[in-house]
Specification:
This protein has 300 residues and is mainly beta. 4% of the residues lie in helices and 39% in strands. Keywords: Signal.
């Protein structure tokens, strides 16, 4: 897939003015998975022992060299964002579930076994959703009016989605393609557009450009506060207090674009990354060496 096609695809997924995608129901198979067709995120469990892949068929789990399905209903999770006590998400209910469609904003603190509905049940499927890992500050791109958000735009909540405040979003240029909330600083959020990477420290009211590179595919804050950034030319970079560092992936073809990346909250040297081609790798030495977990969706 060329860069322009990927950019159009990700703009459809993210952004305050997107049209929500077609409703998709999740499968309910309990057998161990052998492949994945779609990925809607990538995360470690709060204890660092599992890798989670939210998808149309629920959450696929990697643990101790084996793949399985997470407990609970196999919801179609969208806008998946892990935290230190579980995860927030949106999407569509599994077949046989009594939850309204779409799910609105939901939360689980038991690895998906049970789901708590926080807000906008039956109203919204948030594809653009992120949460601070420890702050639990929520940010969403809202595409159309609903009972809590009267207009489209960028909104934040600090009280588990009970109330929302719309951000001014000043200083951002271009079409948003990805965004991420800082793990600890409630007001800090970064937004990537087709014109660069922007950071706000006042809940998204004002932003400053923190890089001149407009070729960004995905961003994510690691639990330790470092910002991981992938570019449309296949690079993976990390921003820390010391500045920017390039992360080399020896197994990856140069043109492959990283769409998701995550850092283990217990062991900061352990990372996982996924690409547009559904290739998945894990590193246990902070990117020094990588082992494959999936090849073109086929699970190892």
């Amino acid at each position: 897939m060329n860069n322009s096609k990927l950019r159009r695809k990700r703009m459809t997924t993210w952004g305050a003015i997107v049209v929500l995608s077609t409703v998709l129901s999740a499968c309910t198979s309990s057998s161990a998975p052998d492949s994945i067709e779609h990925m809607h995120g990538l995360a470690f469990s709060k204890d660092g022992k599992e890798v989670w892949i939210p998808a149309h068929e629920g959450i696929v789990v990697y643990r101790d060299g084996k793949w399985s399905n997470a407990p609970g209903k196999k919801h179609d999770y969208m806008g998946f964002s892990s935290t230190n006590d579980g995860f927030y998400s949106s999407g569509h209910p599994a077949r046989g579930s009594d939850l309204p469609n779409p799910l609105g904003l939901i939360k689980s603190t038991d690895d998906g076994k049970t789901i708590e509905t926080l807000a906008l049940s039956g109203e919204v499927d948030f594809h653009g959703l992120t949460a601070g890992y420890r702050s639990h500050t929520l940010y969403v791109f809202n595409s159309s009016p609903n009972t809590l958000m009267p207009t489209p735009g960028f909104f934040s909540s600090t009280d588990e989605a009970e109330t929302w405040k719309q951000s001014d979003f000043k200083g951002v240029t271009g079409q948003p393609v990805a965004f991420a909330a800082h793990p600890d600083h409630a007001g800090t959020v970064s937004v990537a557009t087709d014109q660069g990477l922007f950071q706000s420290k006042d809940f998204g009211n004002t932003f400053e450009n923190i890089t001149f590179d407009p070729r960004i595919a995905a961003i994510n804050y690691a639990p330790n506060g470092e910002l991981l950034v992938s570019t449309l030319d296949g690079k993976l970079m990390m921003q820390s207090e010391e500045g920017w560092t390039d992360i080399l992936l020896s197994n990856k073809r140069p043109e492959e674009i990283i769409t998701y990346m995550a850092q283990n909250p217990i062991d900061s040297k352990e990372w996982v990354v996924a690409t547009e081609q559904l290739n998945l790798w894990i590193s246990r030495d902070q990117g020094g060496t990588w082992a494959p977990l999936a090849s073109q969706g086929k699970l190892k």
